[in-house]
Amino acid sequence: MSTIPAGAVETTARNALLLDFETNTVLFEKNADVEIPPASLSKLMTLAIIFDELKRGSIRRDEMFPVSEYAWKTGGAASGGSTMFLPLNSQVSVADLIKGIAIQSGNDATIVAAEGIAGSVPAFAERMNAKAQELGLAHSHFANPHGLPDPGQRVSVRDLATLAAYLIRTYPEEYPLFSEEEFTFNGIRQQSRNPLLAYGADGLKTGHTAEAGYGLVASAKDEKGRRIIFAMTGMKSTAERATEARAMLTLGLKGFENVVVLEGGKTAGEIPVQGGAEPSVQVKAAGEVRFLEPRGSGAPYVSEVVAIGPVEAPLPKGRRVAVLRVSRDGKVVREEPLYAAKAVERAGILQRIQDTVMGHFR
């Protein structure tokens, strides 16, 4: 993971991380590895487990789970927290539970899902922690599926961003759910708490407890399709969360740009081939060569093709034969491998003799 300076950026959030999705480049961070209470942001892990179970075929979308008294008391209407308003002893489908968690942030929905999948909240928490270990979430530990205060529950904003990236990358068919603005269940219509959906974000989740403050994990694309992810926690109100999140959204989408040095599929140049049926071969990179950087941050890049020693025929297509050396202000900033764009056969004996003779007179 690389990091680039974002200039003089400030945020009132206690913890924040802004990430370029494709390159995993950190654009801004503040106390990104400090362990904090996750509040409802832990529901992203709950959804990850549900999506995993669906993918494995362990559960079905139309499968019905019962609403236990524990789920009703702890996360239902009487609890005073975020709820899906599930009736006691009713049955609810997995599909509705997913929406109730992602859109309404229902605590009761997470408990019903946990009990339906793992048999109990503690057993489900074990699955959450196993997933956290699998994803390399070094500063996270889960004790319940909803995020209500528990001394054994913690995350970091870096881990939350990693988890969001996992959901986007692994479950693209599920991800549009996070951009839905409302959901009606049992005659009750509720709206998403994500303040950025109206400003171009397409997910993911908000959270709040007295201990954690107001937090958010969000993602959005710019007009060229570049995606950012950011996680922020520790704000003091919904208004502050909305203001700071919009500022982070603007920074991520407008404050940085991709500078393309070599377009994907384009040849970078050519290098000589000794003893070949052709005197040279064109070379290309494995993909697009570009830099993500703050807008207007410096002088233009200069690139040159440098062969890796003498290149001799026969030369197969795709062999690494050169590097694209990229410089700025006279300093080399990157060397990208280059590969033969086509095969070059060995020249015939007469041509090799001629090339050798001609070489003596050059």
Automatic annotation (TrEMBL):
EC number(s) given by UniProt: 3.4.16.4
Name of protein: serine-type D-Ala-D-Ala carboxypeptidase
Superkingdom of the organism of origin: Bacteria
Segments forming domain Peptidase S11 D-Ala-D-Ala carboxypeptidase A C-terminal: 256-346
Matches recorded under Pfam families: PBP5_C, Peptidase_S11
Family affiliation: Belongs to the peptidase S11 family.
Pathway field: Cell wall biogenesis; peptidoglycan biosynthesis
Organism: Aureimonas pseudogalii
General function of this protein: Removes C-terminal D-alanyl residues from sugar-peptide cell wall precursors.
